[in-house]
Here is the input.
Amino acid sequence: MVRITVFRLAAILAPLLAIAPLAGGPLLAQEPEEVSTATPDTTAALAGQVLSALTGDPMIGANVFLRASRLGAVTDSAGEFRIDNVPEGTDTVAVWYSAYEPRFTAVAFFPDRTTRAIFLLSERVFEVAELKVEVRASNIRRERLERRKRVSGGVYISREDIEEFQPRLMSDMLRNIPRVEVTPYRFGIPEILIGTGAMACTPKYYVDGVLMQEFNVDREIGPDDVEDMEIYRGVAEMPTEFKAGGNRCGAIVIWLRGGR
Here is the structure.
């Protein structure tokens, strides 16, 4: 009788102890939500909200990124996000937004469960040394972009190209690129496809190096937000870092301007 009591107590406490934030982590509340138990190979999900630690207001456009699985999402107008198809196991959730301190939290994911969390971000205090690091990181990103231009077969759009063309939507910059199809769909927001006709497919999107889910370039960002854009139309053109998840269609890589 004693063994049965201990087993039941452990079963009740296990979901509450599954998530252990790193030092300084932003996790405020988190409740695993049971869905259905289909097969042991099914994946998990992460859903939640990013808020200002000072005011409690939702952080619109904050980035949420899983380091190990390289999956990410951007928060909506309510500061909410959702990431599906997360592999089972422990991953580090990174949350950052513009001039706010990034936060990192270790989260354990279980099959067929949606883990819910609230993350609080505090404003960053800038110092001269930190500003120097930011400049160096920007230079490294630029060097890697220039190297991809030399060795890859993609199409590249610069800030100067955007300012010269003055597009209303970012998809307007893609309409004249061979093997890129921009088609209208509901609410007048275009859909971007790689290829033509029956062979056309939806490319993967990367924003500042983070793989996005359910992303539409015209709904999420505007021409004033973009510093550079890379368009890769198939496996032959794509650099290795943009082939995550067996991507064979293509990739659109967006680099945001500073402070956006």
Summary: The longest strand covers residues 44-52. The CA atoms of residues 205 and 252 lie 5 Å apart.
